[in-house]
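Teaching note: in complex prediction, the entire set of molecules is handled at once rather than each chain in isolation. The prompt given to students was simply: 'Predict the structure of this complex.' The entities are:
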Amino acid sequence: MTHGNVNEAPAYVSPASRMSVSSLKLGRILTWIGVALLAVAISAFILLPFYWMLKSSFQTNREILAVPPIWIPSSLNWEGYQRALTMIPFMRYLANSLLVAGVTMVVSAILASMAGYVLARYAFPGATIILAAILFSQLIPAITRVFPVYFLIKDLGLINTYAGAIVAYVSFSLPYAILMLQGYFRTSYPIELEDAALIDGCTWFTVFLRIVLPISIPGIVAIATFTFLGAWNDFLWSSLLLYQGQMKTLQVGLRDFIGEFGGLQRANAFMAACVMATIPALMLFRLAQQSMVRGISTGAVKG
Amino acid sequence: MTRQRNIFCYLMVAPSLVLVMILGIYPMIDSLRLSMLQYDLMRIPTEGTPFVGFANFMTIFADPRFVQSLVNTFLFALIAVASVLFLGLLIAQVLNLEFGGRNFLRSLVLIPWVIPPVVASAIWMWVYQPERSPINQVLRSLGLIDSNIKFLTDATTTLGPISIPMLAVSSVRIWGGLPFVTVMILAGLQSIPKDVYEAAEIDGASVIDRFWHVTIPMLRPVLAILVTLLFIGGIGHFEVNYVMTGGGPNNLTNILAVMAYQQAFTLFRFDLAAAISSVILIVTGLIAALYIRDRLRHDSW
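The expected output is the structure of the full assembly:
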């Protein structure tokens, strides 16, 4: 975004300039009250489901079924958590999710760094068309390629294997990771650093490995976090590629509860499972929040 | 030297490019091919998979449920994109002000980001459970409603294609989309130099004047990107609708992605499923192509 078009902002004729000072003040106070009310309403919208999940997870099965609902648990009750761990193979699902998302994150970070680096630094023939193809596959929704990918993984005999899901997640996370990383490589450090190393007789690959990668760790970590969250949160692909009993990821496994939800008998265990399914993502997010927000922000401002 | 360097570049790009081509680009094309075959699992043993041209498209467009889902898909996307932008602009404006507790509010807005869509759908289903819904309780105690709103099952209170379940499911999609949009707009706001606002204030511009005549024009590039990304994402959206309602009641919340998934994996009509997802591909592909052309023209990667 350029700052040059500041002066082109349309001129406005403000009625406020003709008002008296006191009415100007009154208007300002009213605006502030309006802003405060809106802020409260929006905060309630954002917080209500989060709070409702937390409070339900700590209620007894009796209390949770009360009509009208009880807003504050009478005591911190861990029954829901205990039941969540025993009613479904929660730990197994958790391990599956961690494994699939973790390996996806590492492989995708390595491949995307390599591709992102040369796309950012060298104008080799075909670079633009490669970027366009990558951007295209990033933009188009996943549902448009579900069926052929499902058949492909099936033909390879990789349905209900970690390998099948990881290959799929790596491919689907690469476009975003490459696009973000090439933006990062382009702007985050001076190119002279590499030139100096090349003159010293390093090969291109050693420059990448020894100089570029170490100083780019913060950016790579931020984008790797996105990749992890993407695979961790995903439901569509794991519902197709890892649907069998012990192989389910957490997002698919949570639906073990939904079948029973009509009876409402397991609501506290279900909410406890939801809380636990959120914790790993929450911890990772806390760690990388700063750099993630900065990562998207540079994209926004550059755009 | 240049040749060696190019070889180095191709080697570095190759692993990613091969994966993106095989599992990203090729399946889209293959999906179009699949949509022109008869691919009915029941009939494959006897008839195979003959080429049928546009017959699958004729079949789906003759199905009123498909037409309804097509309309719903656009409505959902429009409702979600418009609301999320409106709320995102408001929140970002507030978060851009200087006040105590601003950092706390900023992290609060990010909460939906860490909640996986399936979990978010599950929580909201619980929040929407009519007898035990906190929303119904509050509305009742304020005297605004007499009977509980059946958020996800009321098929009778409708305004054209817009129904209560549609609005209820949209709210969840809006809830999930807010953090990303707010962060993007906030970043855009922070790139507007302060002196522009100061100049406007000296000229006596009110808060609203400043919003329309300074903020919006300055944010136009960010907003354009956001509208494109959100709209494409909205057209292809799957998870929240699938988990919360599976398209019901009476098809009122059905959308193309959910319908395609069900055609394939519950009815085993992969040909009709491919045709439905091809419709998504054509719509989003056109928007994406225009967007990429625009970025190439401005050379802004």
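Point out the following to students. Residues 2-34 of chain B form the longest helix (33 residues). DSSP finds 14 helices and two strands in chain B.
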